[in-house]
Amino acid sequence: MRLERSDGLALGLLLFATGARWLYAMGAPIAADEAYYWEWSRRLDLAYYDQGPGVAWYLRAFTTIFGDTQLALKTAALAASLIALCFYYLTLRRLDLSPTGRLLALAIVVFAPGLFGGSMLIMHDSPLMIAWSAGLYFSVRWIQDRSRTGALLAIFVCVALGALAKHTMLFFAAGFALWIFTDRRELGLLARPVFWGGVALAFALVSPMFIWNAQHNWDGVSAIIHLRSSGGVAASSGVAPYIAGQLLAFSPIWLALFVVLAFAQAWASRPGRADNAPLAPEWRFLWLNAIMLPAFFFVFSFSRQIQANWTFPSYLAMGLLLAHAVAPAATLARRTDLSARLLRGAFYFGWIPVLALNIFAFASVPITRALNLNVPAYFVPGYRTLGFAEAVREIEALRDRVAPGAGLAAANRYQDAAIASWYARGQPFISSVNIMQRNQYNYWPQLERGRDYVIFYIHEKTCERSQIFVTPTLGFMFESVEELPERSVVVDGVVVKRYQVWIGRNYRRSWEDMVYHYFVKQSILDLMPNLKGYYTESATAAAEDDALLALQKIIASRAGGDGCSLFSGM
């Protein structure tokens, strides 16, 4: 490819954006989910309960070079973003986009708020975005030159590597399959041996996840079926949060424009239209790739809670298509009709919320204070990750005073266990009790019998009462339990975290043993009260009532409400 002046501008934009974000990220605290995937990288496996092993092995490469440091985590995150953007720009170079269109498409993806801020966090989305972007490039390359069987096989490799990072990559494969089956001219691909060779290669690459599931009672498959990460079987509708999340993560105006363009394209391409000019194969693929995730999760949001980042890979094709509509293709004369001018005007106006959201993400604390916004600290990005380090140091100091030699254990949040491991002295592995829930910590070392533990819970949403139900359960798990008062972490006069600590002496049994004991031996006494007294080793129903009353008292005593927002006490 011949290099143009716009290519130099694109490279400058990539390097500037990556460098600026890296400098900012190096001064920001580690997020709890980042610590969770860092813990994965310390305990490499074929797969994990939540997802495949991609992010663990990817991050391990950086921690091997830079150690278990912030430098390793942030460099890994920004390197993934840079690699993905490079593949994305190579895709733009293969399409009939003008130099202006390529720069616009690149700028959309660089500055879309969700991607702009998310690129500074090492998550399983990081290697996923590399695989998705590379998949776009090789798909367009193969569609334009069908003789390149290497590019076709590369598509399957990208799908497999993306699936190893996050299950969402399967929607890339679904979009490619839909591209084949919605045009009879493409069905001939199914008769080519190289296609099925690519399918076999993809299955071979993802086989570690099948092996892990076979070794662990297919727990990962069960997590997908029961949709643990979207609220589980008791999830409620999340349409409004889903739409709001997409509006903020992409851009309210850009998203509206894309929806209008999608409906316009569907109308123009409807069957039976006399002047219907079929889309070029690569553009039809890009439309399917852009629409697949947002449409699926929109329908899904009627019964589930959807996280905004689940659709982020679609922003690549969405930005490309939007730029293609705004900046005419190189082969077309520049349009001056009213609709084109309105489209371009709306697009450029859409930069206002994009830049405002990104500036707020970088300078949320001074902006919130300057505007005197009385909002919970949890909703201010600058405060969101603050307080974890202080809480962990205070918990360690308390342990050293009242229970020297005791272990640390998170009460019921894997995020607490991971972030505590990151900030604790020597970065030890810290277990999570995981009462009545399942996550990756169920497969890692559990509490040691006979040992004392300091159990802790860190509450992020300080305006809500922490719903802690572990106290009665801990009484069954330890010989004795002492609950200490709930404490707050204050930064700049703002309560950014609250935490609760329990001192458990002589760990005896897990909560699973307690539940098993109840259903096998004790529940019969609640169902058949006349048997009480014959089996004296089991507690009575009155003891259960006492535990329930104690739980209600504990919840009522939690902090929350008054004094939890910024400036509320000023």
Q: In percent, how helical is the residue content? A: 55-70%
Shape from CA axes?
Answer: globular
User: Which segments are poorly predicted (pLDDT under 50) over 5 or more consecutive residues?
Assistant: 329-335, 534-541
Strand content: 5-15%
Average pLDDT over all residues: 86
Continuous helix count = 24
CA radius of gyration:
27 Å
What is the strand tally? 6
The chain-level structural class is alpha/beta
The biggest beta sheet, please? 6 strands, mixed
> What is the oligomeric state here?
single chain
Order of helices and strands: HHHHHHHHHHHHHHHHHHHHEHEEHEEEHH
Overview of the structural elements:
There is one protein chain. The protein is an alpha/beta fold and 570 residues long. The chain is 58% helix and 7% strand. The protein contains 24 helices and 6 strands. It has helices at residues 5-26, 32-42, 54-66, 70-94, 99-111, 113-118, 125-144, 149-165, 170-181, 193-215, 219-225, 239-249, 252-268, 281-300, 314-326, 338-349, 351-362, 364-370, 381-384, 388-402, 414-423, 470-477, 511-527, 541-556; strands at residues 407-410, 431-432, 453-459, 478-483, 487-491, 494-507. Strands 1, 2, 3, 4, 5 and 6 form a 6-stranded mixed sheet that branches. Helix 1 packs parallel to helix 5 and helix 3 (54-66) packs across helix 4. It is globular. Residues 329-335 and 534-541 have low confidence and may be disordered.
Q: Keywords for this structure?
A:
alpha/beta, 570 residues
Task: Set down the secondary structure blueprint.
Layout: H1 5-26, H2 32-42, H3 54-66, H4 70-94, H5 99-111, H6 113-118, H7 125-144, H8 149-165, H9 170-181, H10 193-215, H11 219-225, H12 239-249, H13 252-268, H14 281-300, H15 314-326, H16 338-349, H17 351-362, H18 364-370, H19 381-384, H20 388-402, E1 407-410, H21 414-423, E2 431-432, E3 453-459, H22 470-477, E4 478-483, E5 487-491, E6 494-507, H23 511-527, H24 541-556
Helix pairs in contact: 1-4, 1-5, 2-3, 2-21, 3-4, 4-5, 4-7, 5-15, 7-8, 7-14, 8-10, 9-14, 12-13, 13-15, 14-15
